[in-house]
Design brief:
The chain is of the alpha+beta class and 430 residues long. The protein contains twelve helices and 19 strands. Strands 8-12-13-14-15-16-17-18-9-10-11-19 form a twelve-stranded mixed sheet. A four-stranded antiparallel sheet has the order 3-2-5-6. It has a three-stranded mixed sheet with strand order 4-1-7, with no helix packed on it. A hairpin with a 7-residue loop joins strand 2 and strand 3. Helix 6 packs across helix 7. The N terminus is likely disordered.
């Protein structure tokens, strides 16, 4: 019987028609990993997410050697072959994918490191920073690039995930069009899936309806505004694009390093194992008579011998106080639309206080002697206080992984490509 099933599998994959793929995702302790994404590398839009018990099931048109990507924020990405997950019937058993933890913040590593004697020697520190920056210029040239990414933004409330949005997107980076040394980043959402626990789906339906934000923006648009203006406004903040676009744009390593080089007194250096050195820059910002306060640390993990940057991590703490509150604009309202607020509550919400932390990791890949982004991970843990004692805990865990990179013949995206409404699919997971 098993011999026949094996032959059937081979035949099915040769024909490569739509087949069912099932499995379970667990951590190294055998515990289920909920809301892990599972998708074919060649067509992420066919993928799905695991339920609270780690199980998944999806249908796709694949061959047996097609690569399946399994990923989740806080874990290393894993690749398995399609034939491992293909099932003819219940007799096949269930394939388990084990994910290894991948910490987001590097603060513990830095604190545990022994401080180098160079710490308080500004001349030596300046020389070290200059050596690293020379390498940064070699590693990160001002070349245009186009990325294809799978971006997941996962929303949590009271410690449990209630929903996740996955967006497949094209990102074009145009350094020559940048201002103040930053890259010009163009974001085009191509396809979007929203995954919900079936029990919580009803709570989110009213807020995440495709036309809810459009109705809000039409109310706030000038009277007599043409229809095309209304459509453009709605599309510009479509479907939480703000979250996915911001994740790629933040953490411009080379620019931030260049700006901080002369500030040697706020740099520390830690010697790590495995030939790595961690350079840390700490900075505090206070604006608007202390209404906005931000402290952040940027960690540059470099090769101790060559000074090449291997990874980049950033930790930020933010406090905002607005004495009379402020009515949020459409982009900011869309952020609140990702948490469980009703449409009427969003319209009336006035922000008065905000506090939170953001941790960001960036991992790089090398191509043709240069370095490009491979993956970004972020955890945002915030607490928003509005008028009339309205409080919103906002926790977002997001990861963005590059599935394709082009470095030649890059063309800018057109305005219509950037603002076109992204196709959506609502997926309930059980």
């Amino acid at each position: 019987m098993r011999h026949i099933l094996t032959e059937m599998k081979t035949l099915v994959f040769i024909i490569a028609f739509v087949s069912t793929f099932i499995g379970r995702v667990v951590d190294q302790n055998g515990e289920p990993v909920p809301y892990a994404t599972v998708y074919p590398e060649i067509a992420p839009e066919w993928g799905t997410a695991t339920n609270n018990d780690g199980f998944f099931r999806f249908e796709a048109n694949l061959t047996k050697d097609s690569r399946i990507i399994v990923s989740c924020i806080g874990y290393e990405k894993k690749t398995v072959l399609a034939e491992s997950l293909y099932s003819v019937g219940p007799e096949d058993g269930l394939y388990s994918v084990v994910l290894k933890e991948q910490p987001i913040a590097l603060e513990e590593t830095v604190i545990a490191a022994k401080k180098s004697k160079q710490r308080n020697k500004r001349k030596q520190m300046a020389a070290l920073l200059h050596a690293v920056y020379v390498k940064l210029e070699e590693q990160f040239p001002d070349n245009n690039a186009q990325y294809r990414v799978v971006s997941d933004a996962r929303m949590l409330s009271d410690g449990s995930t209630w929903g996740m949005e996955q967006m497949i997107a094209n990102i074009v980076v145009l350094p020559e069009q940048a201002r103040e040394g930053r890259d010009s980043v163009q974001f085009q959402g191509r396809f979007c899936k929203r995954f919900f626990d079936a029990r919580k789906r009803a709570q989110a339906d009213s807020i995440l309806a495709s036309d809810a934000l459009e109705r809000m923006e039409q109310k706030s648009a000038p009277k007599g505004a043409p229809a095309n203006m209304l459509r453009k406004a709605a599309n510009a903040v479509d479907s939480g694009v703000v979250v996915h676009r911001a994740l790629f744009a933040i953490g411009n390593m080379r620019y931030d390093f260049e700006q901080a080089m002369s500030d040697t007194k706020h740099w520390t250096v830690s010697n790590e194992s495995e030939g790595e050195t961690v350079l840390t820059h700490t900075q505090s910002v206070s604006k608007y008579l202390g209404c906005f306060k931000m402290t952040f640390q940027r960690h540059y993990i470099v090769d101790s011998r060559t000074y090449e940057v291997r990874r980049f991590s950033e930790h930020a703490e933010v406090k905002v106080f607005i004495p009379f509150g402020i009515k949020l604009n459409a982009d900011q309202l869309q952020m609140l639309n990702l948490v469980n607020m009703s449409e009427s509550s969003i319209e009336k919400f006035r922000l008065k206080r905000l506090r939170g932390t953001v941790d960001l990791n960036t991992i790089y890949q090398r191509k043709d002697g240069h370095v490009y982004i491979l993956e970004k991970n972020m955890i945002c843990d915030a607490h928003i206080l509005g008028s009339k004692k309205a409080e919103i805990p906002l926790v977002i865990k997001a990861t963005q992984r590059v599935t394709d990179l082009q470095t030649e013949n890059i063309q800018p995206l057109s305005p219509s490509q950037i603002t076109r409404r992204v196709k959506r699919e609502i997926v309930e997971i059980y």
